[in-house]
Amino acid sequence: MNTVERLDRIVAKIALPLLIVTLVAVPAAVFGYDSYLQGQVPDGAKTFSIYFDGTQNWSETRASGLTTFSDPPDLQEIRVRKGDLVVLRLMALDVHHGFTLPDFGLGPIELTPGQPHEIRFRADKVGEFLMFCTVICGPAHANMRATLIVTA
Amino acid sequence: MSTKMELPTRDRDVPRTGWSRLTVFAVIAGLAIAGSFGGVAWGWQSSSPTDRVIHITARQFAYEPGIIRVNVGDRVMLHVESADVTHGLYIDGYGVQGKVAPGEDLTLEFVADQAGRFGFRCTEVCGTFHPFMTGKLIVEPNLLLPGAIGLALGGAIGAVLWAGWSARRDEE
Amino acid sequence: MNAVPLEITAATTTLPREVEPLGPDLFEKAPALRRFLGTRSFQFLLIYPNLVFFYILMLAGIFGHPLGNLNSAIVLIWILWWFLLITLLVPIGARVWCAICPLAGPGEWLQRRSIVKFRGLDKPRGLNKRWPKPLRNIWAQNFGFLGLAVISGLLVTRPIVTVVVIGGIWVFATALMLVYRRRAFCVYLCPVSGFQGLYSMVAPIALRSKNREVCKGHKPKTCMIGSRKGDDTPLGYACPWFEYIGDMDRNNYCGLCMECLKGCTKDNIGLFWRGGKMDVVLHGRDEAWKAFIMTALAGVYAIVLQGPVGTLKDWANAPSSGSWGGFAVLAATMFAVTLVVLPAVYAPFVEVSRRATGKVVEFRDLFVRGAFGLVPLGLAAWIAFSVPLVLINGAYILQVISDPFGWGWNLFGTKYVAWNPVGEGWIPLIQALLVLVGLAVGIIKTHRALEPMFERTRQATRAMVPLAGFLTLIAVIFFVVFLG
Predict the structure, then answer these.
(1) In degrees rounded to 5, what are phi and psi of residue A42?
(2) Phi and psi at residue C318, to the nearest 5°
(3) Is B160 in contact with C456 (Cβ distance < 8 A)?
(4) Which residue among C55, C67, C117 sits closest to A12, beta carbon to beta carbon?
(5) Which ipTM did the prediction report?
(6) Do A22 and C66 touch (CB under 8 A)?
(7) CB contact set of B32 (below 8 Å; sequence gap of 6+)
(8) How far is residue C52's CA from residue C58's CA, in Å, rounded to a whole number?
(9) Engineering a disulfide at C381: which of A44, C131, C298, C399 sits with its beta carbon 3.0 to 4.6 angstroms away?
């Protein structure tokens, strides 16, 4: 049996299993790696992903809040308890945005689309605090605001 | 124009004047090339370097004006402002660049010391069509355009002659 | 034997064909290459990485960042893949992409009930129908391609649109392969296939029979109808592209899958390197119109996408700008320019050419043959359009390789490479040279295509003069677009 026949034989044997494994393994690797990255926070931290999408989205003009397809769908407020470690993952989806939470001395920072920004802080005071976009990002810019509610 | 020429209507005997007509064509094309170069060069000579102040408004996904014309040697001052979101401006070849948020004034100053056509484009991701947010800077004399047209005319004639010559050589 | 249809696509002209000589046979120079391409497994080995690659890109398009230049589905397909296809794969490798295309692979495996092993032809899966006769041309492909061209502004900026289109082709191709025999989808419908066929004519690579007489004398015609189980090894399937390599003299519809190489019992298949020689004869109006469509679209894209006019960009980007009226105008313009305006500009030149040579040839024949000049010229214009994409946006490729989904990964440390154009000052010069080369090659090769139409070479030269004028006009339009 020459090399060519051996090659054909081996490939013929592994082709279908390889395809099936690939079908499952690729998404598993992708989402697994991402949740591994997401998991790099201290235990007990309250993590929020906040996506910034002003008016530029596919198919409609929308005056959105700070978020679109993250969880919850249209961000009005974030609730945490006093003493919680809060992790905010910020990501601009369309144009340059900004972020500030002045009562905690956070920001303003500029958010470039595609470049995630992570902020960690301890919610060490009770109350309602405004966070908002700091870079003019279109007609809906003024609506890009949400409240951080820290309860006792 | 060719319909007015006395072209043979019978197929068998194509007179030898074919080649001389091509020669005339070549001469005309040569004059056209020389003329286009000369015209541009003359237009360039008659202008002396000046200061240019140009206001540009950037918006999603274009610049207004999208075409800037200056002469080589001019000192150019671009004032860029944004009508909607954060944009930028990068000029090909010159490497001049800057970023501008709404409400800001971006000033870019440079001496247009290279002639030709240069695209300029947005540097800051500004939405769906960001990669196609482009304009162009023409620094006169843009000799590449008449030069390329001249070469195309000359090249086309040369290609026809060469193709005909090599085909007849192959036949023999 | 008679039952096997020779599904040659376009109406072949009765004129003598001008076939340029083939060069050295690469299979003789590199026997290892021949051995590898002769294996049943080589196609899977090349398709598999591609399949993984496109699978990841589809996932990225669905789940990744919605902005095109941050998502690998856009950057790696419409910048990297497109660039490689139009500047390297097609101009040098002809339809080599078709041999390694992951979109057609699964359908073909289903048809054959096998990925690698040869199972014979007796019981193909699916309905195995013949492609309908009226559709045995590339008109459907032409219109399909135009349909995609109309939405191309969205296709190349929205990952989700890319997923719908590429994924749609994937599903549709697979489904169609279960209905119609072999690669009917690829030959007659695939939008990526049409221009590859057209531009593969200029490729220096050509898979041909070494000696046509041997083919003629070989009655079993295993290359065309496939081997029978129990024949001598190696075994090959019937040509999936409906070609008969024994008299195939153009690259247009050869997918380089090497089934004929495997099925040939006479060792009569060669992979030739013919250098600057090329296929110069267009067959039929469908192919001529393909050349019009591609050439005109290169200009339209350069004006709309790379030009300085904001209104046109708004029209092309209607979902963002809301100017759907403009979108309709742009779409109508694309159809008009490609299907009507360019051919209408071309036609008078053909008529002058015909009159200049004493009306010895049919208008239609000259029209089709003379349109070949648009193949090298159009390809050059496409390369001229595509080179800036990479010079300007090369950094995006590095960025998305590290972060294919736009989620903030940094796999290889290139996520935050600064956007930095490279060699962008040379773009107009590069474009000018490309178009000039395309023009010269177009004229020389069209002359070659015209030679057999006339009794005397001198007449061909005379007929070429007006056609060269037309090509020069088109080149000048490209110069104004690229350089003005």
Answers:
(1) -60, 150
(2) -55, -40
(3) no
(4) C117
(5) 0.87
(6) no
(7) B150, B153
(8) 10
(9) C298
Q: Extract the tokens encoding C213.
A: 């007489």
Question: What does the pLDDT average to over C467-484?
Answer: 95
> Can you tell me which residue has the tokens 């962008």?
C424
The secondary element (H helix, E strand) that includes residue C460 is helix C457-483
- Sheet harboring A46-52: ordered strands across? A46-52, A85-92, A117-122
How far is CA C21 from each of CA C13, C202, C247, C435, C437, rounded to the nearest angstrom? 20, 13, 14, 26, 21
For every one of its 172 residues, what pLDDT tens digit does chain B have, with 9 covering 90 and above?
Answer: 333 344 444 444 444 445 566 666 677 777 777 777 776 666 666 567 889 999 999 998 999 999 999 999 999 999 999 998 999 999 999 999 999 999 999 999 999 999 999 999 999 999 889 999 999 999 988 889 999 999 999 999 999 999 988 888 877 7
The three-state secondary structure class of B169 is helix
Alpha carbon C339 to its chain's center: 19
In angstroms, the CA C4 to CA C135 distance is: 18
Q: How far is CA C283 from CA C8, C93, C98, in A?
A: 10, 21, 21
Nearest CA-CA partner of A64 in A95, A106, A102, A29? A95
Taking CA atoms, A35 is separated from A31, A39, C59, in Å, by 6, 6, 16
Residue B171: count of CB within 10 angstroms of its CB: 9
Using CB atoms within 10 Å of the CB of residue C426, give its burial: 0 to 12 exposed, 13 to 18 middle, 19+ buried: middle
DSSP label at residue B41: H
Please give the single-letter amino acid code of residue C198. L
Q: How many CB atoms lie within 10 A of CB C268?
A: 20
- Nearest chain B residue to A134 by CA distance is B101
Long-range contacts for C79-86 (Cβ within 8 Å, ≥24 apart)? C79/C389, C79/C390, C79/C393, C79/C396, C79/C397, C80/C390, C80/C397, C82/C386, C82/C389, C83/C386, C83/C387, C83/C389, C83/C390, C85/C192, C85/C196, C86/C199, C86/C379, C86/C382, C86/C383, C86/C386
Q: How far apart are alpha carbons C27 and C37 in whole angstroms?
A: 9
**In this structure, which amino acid lies at residue C161?**
V
User: DSSP state, B109?
Assistant: E
C452 DSSP 8-state letter: G
Residue A63 pLDDT > 90 = no
Pick the closest to residue C223 from C273, C187, C184, C266 (CA basis).
C266
State whether residue B85 sits within 8 Å of chain A by CB: yes
- C198 phi and psi angles, rounded to 5 deg: -60, -50
**What tokens were used for C308?**
């300085």
> How is residue C298 written in tokens?
């290169």
Which residues of chain B does A113 touch, with a Cβ-Cβ cutoff of 8 Å? 125
Neighbours of B114 (CB within 10 A): 11
Distance CA C282, CA C253 (A): 12
From the list C290, C316, C309, the residue with the least C-alpha distance to C151 is C316
CB B126 within 8 A of CB A96: yes
**CA proximity to C186, closest of C381, C9, C440:** C9
Residue C229 CB partners (closer than 8 Å, separation 6+): C118, C119, C120, C122, C235
Q: With contact defined as beta carbons under 8 Å apart, do B115 and B46 qualify? A: no
Contacts of A56 in chain B (CB under 8 A): 60, 85, 127-128
DSSP helix/strand/coil, B68: strand
Q: Which of residues 53-92 of A touch C (CB under 8 A)?
A: 56-59, 61, 91
Q: Report the DSSP pairing between strands A77-81 and A145-151.
A: parallel
C361 and C354 Cβ atoms separated by less than 8 Å: yes
